[in-house]
Amino acid sequence: MTYLGIVSMIVAMGVASILTPWVIRLAERLGAMDRPGGRKTHVMPMPRIGGVAVFAGFVAGMATASFLSGVLLDPPRVEVFWPGFVIAATVMFLVGLVDDLTDLSYRIKFVAQFVCAGYVWFCGFRIEILTNLGNPLGQAIDLGWLSLPITVLWIVGITNAVNLIDGLDGLAAGTALITTIAVGLIGFRMNSLGVTAACVALAGSLIGFLRYNFNPARIFLGDSGSMFLGFVLAVISARGSQKLPTTVIVLVPLLLLALPLLDTSMAVARRLYWLTAHTRTKPQRLRYLVRNLDALFSPDRDHIHHRLMDLGLSHRAAVLALYGVGLASASVAFVLTFVKSREIGFLLLGILVGSMAALLAVLYLRMRRTADVSQTDGAVRPDAPAVDPGFAAPEPRAHSR
């Protein structure tokens, strides 16, 4: 199995590394370029279909593992129908690629995400039990019919969360790599062959791609990469955690993806606050609010990585700092799989939460100071979500750059 993992990773890494320069040239020919301007941090047009190389490396790694083992494509010998997962992940990649080339409506992307999430649930990738944190014995809660909506919401939420943190060179790909390694180690410990194989293939692909994506980047992931990565991470993290002890079965996937979940939660809360504050001055408030909910999907420059740069960190330093946050949360998640004491587990969790709360407090104070200066100068925030007074909200791209 060690030999199989090494070979699969090398194949995935080699394919992604070799294809990326070719994808850069292809993007230039197709005009699939991310133009600078506005809140974006780059100053030159950049290819934005890096997901092609990541996806190709992942498929090559999975195909190698399947061919050498003869297991992954044999449904009776695995717990779930893994080819169904590959099909759904492929659809996510293709939807993202079309968006990179033609600018799809976010509504179409949401429909595709919900359909793919429902399909993998049907194939057997399900969140079926949750931790009962209020029970001292750590007994689990059987979700029953709630398994479908919770699984679908988890997958769709993580898919978009990874898309939102793709705002600095190498941030989304590097964070995904850290999470993938942690999930792979947990899957290996739980004897989950499919999860481990998927993680090995994805990790190899990301390593091969990151040499071109880390600052200064030569290519961006684009929606083809971020949507694909988010979907894969959501599925394998949920699946890999279902064999864990009931005391940590819900904490581990949340910790593994703590950074994108935190940033997305803050983004939604921030944009909802701006929208409701704007609504107070309008007649027919309820109608105005409903018609302008599209503003929740408007990009801005208030993400955690942007605020770190506002504090004086360089582009690369901000990315490395967030790598540290991702590594810390993934490490705690991995350690929790070994800890049998609830007290020690909650102590580790408390330390992590306290550290992240301190980081958010610093960023919040910086945001308040900036807002106070803007109000004193009579300036209007240029990056606040645009709201159309005629009830027609804009239809912006999902990129956070």
How would you state the average pLDDT, rounded?
76
Low-pLDDT windows of residues: 374-401
For the CA atoms, what is the radius of gyration? 21 Å
Order of helices and strands: HEEHHHEEHHHHHHHHHH
Number of helical segments with 4 or more residues: 14
Query: In total, how many beta strands?
Result: 4
**Shape category:** globular
Query: Structural class, from secondary structure content?
Result: mainly alpha
Portion in strands: under 5%
Spatially, the strands of the biggest sheet line up as 1-2
Question: How many angstroms does the end-to-end distance come to?
Answer: 40 Å
Helix content: 55-70%
How is the main sheet built? 2 strands, antiparallel
Features:
401 residues, 66% helix, 2% strand, two-stranded antiparallel ribbon, globular, single chain
How would you summarize what this structure contains?
This protein is an all-alpha fold and 401 residues long.
Can you walk me through this structure?
- Mean pLDDT is 76; it is low at 374-401.
- The chain has a two-stranded antiparallel ribbon with strand order 1-2.
- The longest helix has 36 residues, at 342-377.
- It is globular.
- The protein has a domain at 2-247.
- Helix 2 runs antiparallel to helix 7 (193-213), helix 5 (147-164) crosses helix 10 and helix 6 runs parallel beside helix 13 (315-336).
- The two termini are 40 Å apart.
- 66% of the residues lie in helices and 2% in strands.
- With 401 residues, the protein is mainly α.
Q: Helices, strands, pairings?
A:
Elements lengths: L1 H29 L2 E2 L11 E2 L3 H19 L12 H21 L3 H18 L5 E3 L8 E3 L4 H18 L6 H19 L3 H21 L8 H20 L9 H6 L1 H22 L5 H7 L12 H7 L4 H22 L5 H36 L24
Antiparallel strand pairs: 1-2, 3-4
